[in-house]
Design a protein that fits this description.
The complex is a heterotrimer. By secondary structure, chain A is mainly alpha-helical. Helix content of chain A is 76%, strand content 0%. The interface between A and C is large, with 100 and 103 residues.
Chain lengths: 266, 385, 311
């Protein structure tokens, strides 16, 4: 909005927003603070400690699960972004029969409850006699990430000026050259945010992963879930704090990067 | 084991001089167990592999004595969370040079869902009695070769030949326990009956397990019925009792209730005795009672799925946990009873075997087969009430 | 693999050597727009058909087969699973789930709209505030749920503070009540509401509001007659994005609701685990999917044709 600023808004509106934002962050902030609390159970502050973080490092299962989560997240994101961007290009830049239906169909996986997706994939993998493990988790994650990638990249393409691509073609570049020299650089912020979304969806997924995971492929959410179910130790506060800080940094950096690459406000 | 005589018999059978039935009869006569004979017979199945009869006989004989070959370098364990001493697995891995993959589950159903769906790759799993009977009925449980279980003699007679696995053909007993009431002795009086859950006195400070079998089972016992009842009238009464208790319950909570007992959010909880023992380490006021109407006794078992990729390592692991010192360390950590008589003697906090009087009030859950869906509908109705 | 799939270094000017194959491929594709489009679509489409559509069809088949004793299905055909769903207890669950999802959506809209409005007009604070809205959304769902338990227990932070401050003698029961489930869902899905509303408010042309002001409309009227209608697409999209996951949620009612009430998500989950009734679980999934698809169709009807694609 052009001539506007927070000062011009009604006081109660600003206060309401502040309260909402505060409440949204309160639970996690409290968790982080208490990950340094010496007492194991009390919600009163009994002193500062790093013991719970040290205990995390001793747990092989957590480190192993982190490794599995990273492998799955990175691989699934790479595949999902490639497949999803191609679909988005076709939807935004090409006219073909059934395009509207195709676009509508893309929303179906997004709105399907996770439990349904997970169970049906488990049934399929078992039917195909595929051994459950990292591979099946990656396949499942790609399947639920692709539609999100498509939606984000299509939105970005819709805001892009098609004239630039046409100009490049007029000047003698073929489709491939135009794509890599013009379209891709312009599309980059969209692809980046799609990749980030896809990675975090994958990194955070519990429901589907728990169904298609096999021996030796437990990801971080599966380990956290069994810790939450027991909720005895503040180690879980510590691991939560680490995840929150890591995602904030990731989000902040990618925000900076996409801002720098952004040619104009779309 | 009378090795020399058994080997002679095996060679005789492999060479074709005695039949399989005759072999089994003579082997039994010299004291070889039926399970072992079955294993040998399975290993001695004739195969058309083009070997000279003599060579085949020699190989078959060797395989019959060593049906599983040398120990593999890997072992995949799928266990309940927090259900093994911290050093059990590392020590096993070091001693046997095996790389162990360790994953956890939270319920029998989670395990069954994976295995029934056809998941492979697990070498050792830990089903409770009723889940084990499902694995046996569906042919998913692998047969054990008792010859590898040299520590088998340590198992207490009480746990031999259970109804859910006759002859222990598929399972080694792991831990046993009782589902009763854990309570805060500093806040409440000893709960002597399931009926305490129906009184308003401690309303909002009590929980039952988030498991239909356990909740409906407790109310069946309350009226003096079997907790495996299939009688419509008994079940309907149990449902009504469960619903009248529900308004006093804080929640249906399973494992997480431990933390809430310690913190004092919950004062009386339907819980497994070992988890209560674990919680007592943090909060000494936590005590445990078995309601006078009776309750569930259960035994979890080590089972090798038929699809196990590393059967020899699985057997070595089972034999390892049957060692007295290993079994004692596990049960001291989990807080549950050990079925290993020699381990019991070495435990710091032994859980004594139930007395005959207690046993009369305790009952194993058995698989309900097709009735499972009807029980689930009851459970759904209780939750929706 | 398609021509466009080539790595960047392969993309040189048209006359680069060794590009005969690419030239021929492009020459073939040029007059065939359908083929161009489907070349791009093919890899992703194959993946989604194989790992989304096929499994869903398998589930559909399972829902009309007799149940196996130990899970799975037996051969045959029956609609027993669907008729079973007509039992009052299951209809109650469907109704409760629906009411909870509607309540979550309404509360999220009431809280989310003012927040989005403030952010859209916050000038230089905008990017910081947006970052703050998005941040919890990126934080692990399980971690956030655990944090809620930590706050709301009888011996949790809120109750200990209230008692320590002398405001209460006894703790207020918060955890394991319908309130905690609702709070958990709103907390979990609020960003889904704020972001689309913000996006549509951001695009709103300030000139329209100025025009309304010049024409004498009071602030309330300006909001009701101009801002609200123009931000309706964002509001509707936000409602959909909150409503749908609320319908399918099951972990929240387990972890925050103390498993005392079943939602349809829990029902589905139970059928595949404890009840070993796969056909009924599949049928319940399908009923859930149909409700969700109906909601999407309503949305597509309400959505004006000129809205930006995506949300």
């Amino acid at each position: 909005m052009g001539a506007s600023g927070i000062g011009k808004l009604p006081r109660w509106l600003v206060a309401f927003t502040a309260v909402c934002l505060f409440l949204m962050h309160l639970p996690v902030l409290v968790l982080i603070v208490f990950s340094f609390n010496a007492s194991k159970f009390a919600v009163t502050w009994t002193g500062f400690t790093l013991a719970w973080y040290r205990r995390l490092l001793e747990r092989d299962d957590i480190l192993h699960a982190l490794q599995a989560s990273l492998i799955v997240g990175i691989t699934a994101t790479a595949i999902a972004v490639t497949l999803g961007t191609l679909i988005a290009l076709a939807l935004a830049r090409h006219r073909f029969r059934g395009r509207t239906i195709y676009e509508g169909m893309m929303y179906v996986p997004i709105v399907t409850p996770e439990i349904v997706t997970g169970i049906s994939l488990l049934v399929l993998f078992v039917f195909l006699r595929m051994p459950l493990g990292l591979a099946t988790i990656i396949i499942a994650h790609v399947a639920f990430c692709v539609p999100f990638v498509v939606v984000v990249v299509v939105a970005r393409l819709a805001g892009m000026d098609e004239n630039l691509e046409e100009a490049a073609m007029t000047l003698g570049a073929d489709e491939v050259t135009t794509f890599f020299r013009v379209t891709l650089p312009l599309l980059w912020p969209g692809i980046l945010s799609a990749a980030l979304l896809s990675f975090i969806l994958s990194f955070d997924d519990f429901v589907i992963t728990s169904l298609v995971a096999g021996s030796g492929s437990s990801t971080l959410p599966l380990v956290i879930y069994s810790m939450v179910r027991r909720n005895i130790e503040p180690s879980i506060n510590a691991i939560s704090a680490l995840i929150v800080v890591a995602t904030s940094v990731l989000l902040y950096v990618s925000d900076r990067m996409s801002r720098r690459n952004e040619p104009s406000h779309a | 084991m009378p090795d020399r005589r058994a080997e002679t018999l095996l060679r005789a059978m492999a060479a074709g001089s005695i039949g399989r039935r005759e072999f089994a009869r003579r082997a039994l006569a010299i004291g070889v167990s039926a399970t072992t004979i079955a294993g040998w017979l399975a290993a001695c199945r004739p195969v058309g592999d083009g070997l000279a009869p003599a060579a085949r006989a020699a190989r078959d004989a060797a395989e019959a004595l060593e049906p599983l070959g040398p120990i593999e370098h890997r072992l995949a364990i799928y266990n309940w969370s927090d259900y093994v001493a911290p050093d059990t697995i590392p020590n096993f891995a070091r001693e046997f040079g095996v790389r162990v993959t360790y994953d956890v589950y939270e319920s029998n159903e989670e395990l069954l869902a994976k295995l029934l769906a056809g998941a492979r790759g697990y070498d050792v799993v830990f089903p409770s009695s009723y889940a084990l009977s499902v694995l046996v009925a569906t042919g998913l449980a692998g047969s054990l070769h008792r010859a590898y279980l040299t520590n088998w003699g340590n198992v207490a007679p009480l746990f031999l030949n259970p109804g859910f696995d006759p002859g222990n053909a598929h399972s080694v007993p792991w831990q046993w326990g009782i589902t009763g009431l854990a309570y805060r002795s500093d806040k409440v009086e000893t709960p002597e009956s399931w009926g305490v859950l129906q009184s308003r006195r401690y309303a909002g400070k009590m929980t039952q397990l988030d498991d239909g079998r356990d909740v409906i089972g407790s109310w069946l016992r309350y009226r003096g019925h079997s907790l495996n009842s299939r009688d419509q009238i008994e079940l309907a009464a149990a449902k009504n009792d469960a619903i009248s208790a529900k308004r006093n319950l804080r929640a249906y909570l399973s494992a997480p209730v431990k933390g809430q007992l310690i913190s004092g959010d919950v004062w009386i909880a339907q819980l497994w005795n070992g988890d209560a023992t674990q919680a007592r380490v943090e909060q000494p006021a936590i005590q445990y009672a078995i309601p006078r109407e009776g309750s569930t006794i259960w035994a979890d078992n080590v089972v090798m799925p038929r699809s196990a990729p590393h059967p020899r390592a699985a057997h070595e692991f089972m034999n390892y946990i049957l060692r007295p010192e290993v079994g004692a360390a596990i049960s001291d950590f989990t807080g549950y009873g050990t079925p290993n008589a020699k381990a019991l003697a070495r435990m710091e906090h032994p859980v004594p075997y139930p007395t005959p009087d207690q046993l009369r009030r305790l009952e194993y859950q058995i698989d309900l087969g097709r009735e499972t869906a009807e029980w689930d509908q009851l459970w759904t109705e209780i939750k929706s009430a | 693999m398609t021509a466009l799939d080539m790595p960047p270094q392969a993309a040189g000017p048209r006359s680069a050597p060794g590009n005969g194959l690419r030239r021929r491929a492009l020459a073939w594709l040029a007059p065939r727009p359908q083929a161009q489009a489907w070349t791009l679509l093919a890899p992703g489409t194959v993946w989604m058909l194989g790992f989304f559509l096929v499994p869903v069809i398998v589930m559909c088949a399972y829902s009309v087969m007799p149940r196996g004793e130990y899970g799975g299905v037996d051969p045959g055909f029956t609609i027993e699973a669907y008729t079973r769903f007509l039992h009052p207890v299951y209809l109650t669950i469907l109704e409760r789930t629906f009411v909870l999802a509607v309540a979550t959506t309404v509360l999220s809209a009431l809280a989310g709209y003012p927040v989005a409005y403030t952010i859209a007009r916050s000038g230089r604070w905008k990017s910081l505030l947006l970052f703050l809205v998005v941040l919890p959304f990126w934080t692990s769902f399980l971690v956030r749920t655990f944090a809620m338990i930590f706050l709301m227990r009888d011996t949790g932070l809120i109750n200990s503070w209230l008692i320590a401050a002398g405001l209460r003698q006894e703790p207020i029961p918060m955890l394991y009540t319908p309130f905690s489930v609702l709070a958990g869902l709103v907390y979990g899905y609020l960003p889904f509401m704020v972001l689309p509303i913000y996006a549509s408010l951001e695009k709103l042309d300030p000139a329209l509001l100025e025009a309304a002001e010049v024409l004498g409309a009071r602030p309330a009227a300006r909001f009701r007659r101009v801002t609200l209608p123009l931000s309706a697409p964002g509001l509707i999209a936000g409602c959909l994005l909150v409503f749908i996951p609320s319908l399918g949620s099951y972990l929240t009612s387990d972890l925050l609701g103390g498993a005392k009430e079943l939602l349809i998500g829990n029902l589905v989950q139970n059928q595949f685990s404890t009840a070993r009734n796969w056909p009924f679980g599949s049928a319940a999934s399908f009923i859930l999917m149909i409700v969700v698809l109906a909601a999407v169709l309503v949305y597509l009807r309400l959505r004006p044709p000129d809205t930006v694609r995506g949300w």
